[in-house]
Specification:
The protein is α/β, with parallel strands linked by helices. The chain contains 12 helices and 11 strands. The mean pLDDT is 85.
């Protein structure tokens, strides 16, 4: 059978983060397995850093969309595209993606829309333009992929959930220190300040310490420094990826009590290294816990439950170790790059109404 040609519309690295990480891992998996022909189309906004007015942002946004529409149309002309895969990040980007969808439909090309954020009915509270574009995407797309099953409008499309994964990273010996590690931006939305506050409130830390890794703006860094009251907390700032992975590998628990997430790849990196997971039930995180028991999942912004989870993990080292082993097994079976590629390939072929084994 001839391989299908899939046009992936997504931000490309650099920077390698968020959706760009997802695309990088997908391309790497396909380079090894050679299941489909992937043609990429970069939807990233490469505006230089700086402060912009709302009017300037709107003008730049429309210019970017019209430029991308021309380039998208050229991609369709230059390649025999079997299916278009739109990686949509929400908000105003849905307007652009709806235009892409309409152009593909004019050429009778099926379209899959992947929503890379925790979708719920609250999405309908967005500004009217975004809300209408989201409605149009869900109505006219041939298939909808979501991070969770809370998006009721797309339920009839039978969304596929396990659509994230990454290749194993080269990691040395695992020291497994009595360490809880946090990796991410030092911002309120990541739950880092609640994590530090509840850590400070623990009466007995049983020889454990908390390691924090990630960039911070001056205001947030000052706030974090004020909360670090003893040497049981170590803030390392922003590090190179290889060093981050080494610190994660040496820890025993990965903590990410975020208020909001899409699908954090940092959790998969921790699972590769057999860390127990302590995370909030936001975005696609509950996907991971649906396959087993890799740790403790708590509601977001629940300080008391966060404190209880921390106490449970550091007071029961055998259970914490079992969580870590379960996390590695879940990653190995469901969240490798190849597993992600296979799931997406099944989605593409079923959307095309083709037998993938013909």
């Amino acid at each position: 059978m001839n391989k299908i040609n899939v046009l992936i519309c997504s931000p490309l690295p650099p920077p390698k983060g968020g959706i760009a990480t997802w695309l990088h891992e997908l391309v790497e998996a396909n380079n090894s397995a050679q299941k489909v022909n992937l043609i990429t189309f970069n939807t990233a906004n490469k505006r230089p850093a700086g402060v912009y007015s709302k009017l300037r942002k709107a003008i730049d946004g429309f210019r970017l969309i019209f430029s991308q529409l021309r380039n998208f149309n050229q991609k369709l002309k230059d390649n025999r595209i079997d299916i278009v895969h739109l990686s949509s990040s929400g908000g105003f980007a849905h307007f652009r993606d709806l235009l892409f969808l309409m152009m593909a439909k004019l050429k009778n090309i099926p379209v899959v829309v992947q929503l890379h954020y925790g979708v719920s009915d609250a999405a309908y509270q967005w500004m009217p333009l975004s809300k209408m574009a989201l409605y149009g995407l869900c109505k006219y797309a041939d298939n909808i992929l979501t991070l969770d099953n809370s998006f009721s409008f797309s339920s009839e499309k039978k969304p596929l959930l396990s659509i994230n994964g990454m290749a194993p990273a080269p990691i040395g010996d695992l020291k497994k220190e009595k360490c809880i590690v946090f990796v991410g931006w030092i911002v309120e939305a990541k739950g880092i300040f609640e994590l530090v506050e509840q850590w400070n409130n623990l009466e007995n830390k049983h020889g454990w310490y908390l390691k924090i890794i990630g960039p911070a703006q001056p205001v947030e860094q000052a706030r974090l420094n004020d909360k670090i009251i003893d040497d049981s907390i170590l803030y390392l700032g922003e590090l190179e990826r290889e060093k981050v992975l080494n610190h994660v590998a040496d820890a025993s628990v990965f903590a990410l009590p975020s208020h909001t997430e899409g699908f954090p790849y940092a959790i998969l990196e921790a699972m590769q290294s057999e860390l127990a997971i302590l995370a909030s039930d936001v975005g696609g995180i509950n996907q991971i816990f649906s396959y087993g028991d890799p740790g403790i999942i708590i509601p977001p912004k629940q300080s008391k439950k966060l404190a209880c989870a921390l106490t449970q993990l550091i007071s029961n080292p055998q259970q914490t170790n079992e969580f870590g082993q379960s996390a590695f097994q879940i990653y190995s079976e469901h969240f490798t790059g190849l597993a992600m590629l296979n799931n997406l390939h099944n989605c593409w072929t079923s959307t095309l109404m083709r037998d993938p084994y013909a």
